[in-house]
Amino acid sequence: MARRKALKWNAHKLAEMAGIPYPTLRDIEAGINYGREETKDAIAKALGASVSDLYKDDSAKGIPDLTAAAAFLSSFQSLSPDLQKIVLAIVHGDIDYASDLTPEFAKKFEPLLEALG
After folding, report:
1. Cβ 14 vs Cβ 25: under 8 Å
2. Which member of 40, 77, 97, 101 has the lowest number of beta carbons within 10 Å of its beta carbon?
3. Is 67 strand, coil or helix?
4. How far is CA 13 from the centre of its chain?
5. Class assignment of domain 2-63?
6. Contact 28, 43 (CB under 8 A)
7. What are phi and psi of 9, to 5 degrees?
8. 117: helix, strand or coil
9. What is the pLDDT of residues 51-76, one digit of tens each?
10. Which phi and psi (to 5°) does residue 55 adopt?
11. What is the spatial distance between Cα 81 and Cα 98, in angstroms, rounded to a whole number?
12. What is the pTM (predicted TM-score) of this model?
């Protein structure tokens, strides 16, 4: 997003230049969707940058890089469906990890915490 703003482009302009739907770009910039490789390549090409250059700007602002996200997703996918539901409840604020889960149960989440670094 920083590179787009430096070019004084709005998100609609970048989506048009990259040849992707605006909602896809909006979700990628919001961190809702990480995008397919070809989508990220199209965005980078439109901005005259590499994909890794695009994420360097964001990682300096505390936004996780794609490596951490991929490790998290891999760990998340290895959990049982019941544990996945609990993780999603924690993310959405329905469960307070620190106070609602027993220490024994919380140990099941250690791979996720390690993936987040």
Report:
1. yes
2. 77
3. helix
4. 22
5. mainly alpha
6. yes
7. -100, 140
8. coil
9. 888 766 554 444 445 666 666 777 77
10. -85, -15
11. 21
12. 0.49
